[in-house]
């Protein structure tokens, strides 16, 4: 009996220790930063923007704080993120906390400056920073981007980014970019980062819908942000942009990347002015043959795609007519191969490096790290002979056979 | 109530080996392996495992032949004085390792989870709990380890599944990393990373039978090596070499990457909790072994009361290093200087046995 009493008392005492000592925090006293923006300032400074979520919005507690906005945005000029956070705490009564931070927004001018890599590499030192944090590069200042990004249907910003990224992850006109991926690709290969903007650019309207970049998609009266295409990073610095189509080809040619739904239109082979829209699925890894035995690497990529016919504006019969089917497959393959080769030439001449993660496959050809480094695949890539083969197989046609025509009387 | 004889069976020994060797995959040991073996750290850990297995098998054979624990075997084959000397050296080595490792474990917790809490307090509480476990005796440690083992295996599976998406097999290539020559050169130098296996041989008298001891140690060692190889491969597959070399605590960073979709993304607390409990078991075994070795050095019969003063001394020692980088440096030195002894000892004993057999 005494023993049991003693045990109970001891356990009670121990539970006191569970409260923690110096590092205890009350959830109520934390301000959760959900989006972090980085801008380049003159001299040694950066402008750090914190978007802090209001936990009362979107919860049952909403009635208590009806007039409060869903988020609070603070921009602080400082030399690094940590000191900026300290300065922000002179304004915000709650302690700024990064543990729910999932989105990092960087302005293009910052990404093009050498300050970018320094800032990001010291950012990962902060214990709460997660390497899975998404990275987005925006055309304008990150502070402006965050302030302007007020989607009408999504009040909570972290939900907005989450849904947006999930959506693009399957559609492949923007890459899936995060901090870990950036840190993995610093040795000369290209790393593609989501490109976004709130600005509208008056530009031409393309027939091929994937040729747009962020800000160029012709839309009116909508949510301000567009995410399309990618910013190209090499050795920790942004060196250019790619449009949606180029980003898509970069994804398709990656060995391991699966692309679940590429909806794309192609010129109708039977009617020049019209277009056929198909959904392409890449469910198998791209087959790569890389020959590194000679001075110039020879690369052969084979991509198998399954297609679904979605719309035929030209009203041609691609369903029951097997010859036409083959013609359509052939056209899609030709168009894609041509565009891909143009794109590869661009990477070889303009960027002088590859975004396809092919270097990861080249690694398999060598036994030791030194051999691999000595071969210098990235350095040789601009001269590499690349051959791309697409294999398109249309496997379903939507819920119609021939297109419905006007005045179809079925008279022989 | 069932009355026990204070002895433990194969499964308890198996789980103790996992607690004392397998857990090394989650502290700062992988840093050392990645530093020496680049992206072939998994291969390196496997090679060390194989190299350490050979002398251990010899030792097992000897113990089976004489039906003696390691201490009695040492006394029998080398004489009382040399045995005392060896045991004393082992005590010093283990004690320094225990102090260094305590500090390095606490550094992990301090850096990633409780940055404002005093290191000294954390060391104090950590060692206090380890002492509480250790003072209950060897049987309790064994049975608690066995209870925890299923959880450890389960959590490892959860970790594997939840980081599956972030892994990229091609990062493991080039397969040999720095080259076979370098790997072969570094392997024997780091053999004492798994030297606790040899130290566990002192505990043969606590096992029910020699057979169960052999079974337990071999299976436990196999499982430990498997876990270490697997986790080392995960680190490289998720973070990629050379980026992984800059990560100070790969396991803890890996648990941060663990997620089930975007919703369940912050689950590192589960891993931290179990990891701390396992670490307490790890140090309980360390403390128990140091007390045992100390007692054997000075021929003290009753050694369990010694655990408390040794724990205090361990606390004191662990305060000396300045930071984790210094610890890693000292640790690398301690490990590479001791390897040769642990590798050679069983063969020396075997030689002595042969010599003795011939002369008698």
- Assembly state (oligomeric): heterodimer
The shape of chain A is globular
- The total count of helices of chain B amounts to 14
CA(first)-CA(last) distance of chain A: 102 Å
CATH topology (fold) name of chain B = Amino acid/polyamine transporter I
Major protein interface: A-B, 31 and 37 residues
Radius of gyration of chain A: 26 Å
Order of helices and strands of chain B: HHHHHHHHHHHHHH
Helix-strand pattern of chain A, N to C? HEEEHEEHHEHHHEEEHEEEEHHHHE
List segments of chain B where confidence is low: pLDDT < 50 over at least 5 consecutive residues.
none
Description:
The complex is a heterodimer of chains A (412) and B (360). With 412 residues, chain A is α/β, with parallel strands linked by helices. Chain A has two domains: 27-245, no CATH class; 254-403, GMP Synthetase, Chain A, domain 3 (2-Layer Sandwich). Chain A has twelve helices and 14 strands. In chain A, strands 1, 2, 3, 4, 5, 6, 7, 8 and 9 form a nine-stranded mixed beta sheet that branches. In chain A, strands 10, 11, 12, 13 and 14 form a five-stranded mixed beta sheet that branches. In chain A, a hairpin with a 7-residue loop joins β10 (259-267) and β11. The radius of gyration of chain A is 26 Å and the shape is globular. Chain B is mainly α. Chain B has a single domain, classed as Amino acid/polyamine transporter I (Up-down Bundle), CATH 1.20.1740. The longest helix of chain B is centred in the last third of the chain and has 36 residues, at 324-359. The mean pLDDT of chain B is 90. At the A-B interface, α7 and α11 of A face α11 of B.
